[in-house]
TrEMBL record:
Residue ranges of domain HpcH/HpaI aldolase/citrate lyase in the record: 59-289
PANTHER family: 2-KETO-3-DEOXY-L-RHAMNONATE ALDOLASE, PHOSPHOENOLPYRUVATE CARBOXYLASE FAMILY PROTEIN
Protein name in UniProt: Phosphoenolpyruvate/pyruvate domain-containing protein
Gene Ontology CC annotation, any one: cytoplasm
Origin species: Pholiota conissans
GO molecular function, one term: metal ion binding
């Protein structure tokens, strides 16, 4: 199956067995097919493989398109720390999805307006930073889900009660990204929208088991730098700090014990491999800033014998601030 068709309705899904042609004129029809990042995650479970993505902090549809063409499963469009405004977010999400890659927007904060704006672009999901309590997680899920169409859905056709939220209906852009009609998108979005939260504070760590149990939370994602910082350690040394590594193990176990995915921020291939072997489901492989700075520092360093300037001293060699 090619990278584009795995996002299209009608191609079957790992978690769905009903191959009946959907009735696109009936908003009460329940679609059991997974699309977008939900589909990617489900397909990666059998046979088991890591879901690997990249991280985008610079704006630009052309940049997003080129990174998506590399073969990544997803790209995080970073609207928290990245130089990406609302217009750039819209442009990047569409460009990424057009290449058969899942756009996942990291919102600036777990607030209603940010979540609505991100999902209205057609993003396959959101990544919310600084999740500290189960109550905050429940609010986040409600922001990401439309009100359930319970009055038009045959209860007997549902495997369980549908999720319901307060997301506003109105964006014409999201259905286009999913290649659906407006009624199809509204009917299926609650199932397909991927909701991930970052555990990166001491309160989040202490409440990670309860956060993972919240219905509608799909993944716990670890921000190791902020986690280490909140524990009183230098953020960039998190890989070598036993207490931080124990905290990471706890969050991983909390996610899997609740039947949820676990994600981890990584900066190089060796880290991705190690975290996958540890049991993590989704990892990013650095991102645009790291790639740009590391390449320039490495290549400039090879000219140190003839380059007598101070350029090398001013290069951020692979330093990350996630």
């Amino acid at each position: 199956m090619d990278r584009i068709s795995r996002f299209l309705p009608g191609f079957g899904a790992a978690a769905g067995t009903d191959t009946t042609e959907p009735d696109t004129n009936n908003p009460g029809v329940f679609c059991d097919e997974l699309l977008g990042l939900q589909r990617v995650m489900a397909d990666a479970q059998n046979p088991k493989r890591p879901v690997i993505g990249s991280w985008m902090m610079f704006p630009g549809a052309s940049l997003a398109r080129m990174i998506a063409q590399m073969g990544y499963d997803f790209i995080v469009v970073d609207c928290e720390h990245g130089n990406i405004d609302d217009a750039a977010m819209h442009a990047s999400v569409g460009a990424i999805a057009a290449e058969g890659c899942s756009p996942l927007v990291r919102v600036p904060a777990p607030e209603y307006a940010y979540v609505k704006r991100a999902l209205d672009t057609g993003a396959h999901g959101i990544l919310a930073p600084f999740m500290n309590t189960a109550e905050e997680a429940r609010k986040l899920v409600s922001y990401a889900k439309f009100p359930a169409q319970a009055k038009s859905i045959e209860t007997s056709a549902l495997a369980s009660a549908p999720l319901s939220g307060v997301r506003g209906v109105g964006s014409p852009f999201a259905p286009a990204v999913f290649r659906q009609t407006f009624p199809e998108y509204v009917r299926t979005a609650n199932r397909n929208t991927f909701v991930a939260v970052q555990i990166e504070t001491l309160p989040g760590l202490e409440n990670c088991e309860e956060i993972a149990k919240v219905d509608g939370i799909d993944m716990l994602f670890i921000g190791p730098n902020d986690l280490a910082s909140s524990m009183g350690y230098p953020s960039h040394l998190h890989e070598s700090i036993p207490e931080v590594q124990e905290a990471i193990k706890r969050i991983l176990a909390a996610a899997h014990n609740a039947g949820k995915y676990a994600g981890m921020f990584c900066t190089e291939a060796a880290h991705v491999r190690a975290r996958f072997e540890q049991g993590f489901d989704l990892m990013n492989l650095a991102g645009d800033v790291v790639a740009l700075t590391q390449w320039n520092a490495t290549e400039l360093g090879k000219l140190s014998d003839i380059n007598k300037g101070k350029g090398k001293e001013n290069v951020v060699f692979g330093q990350t601030y996630y």
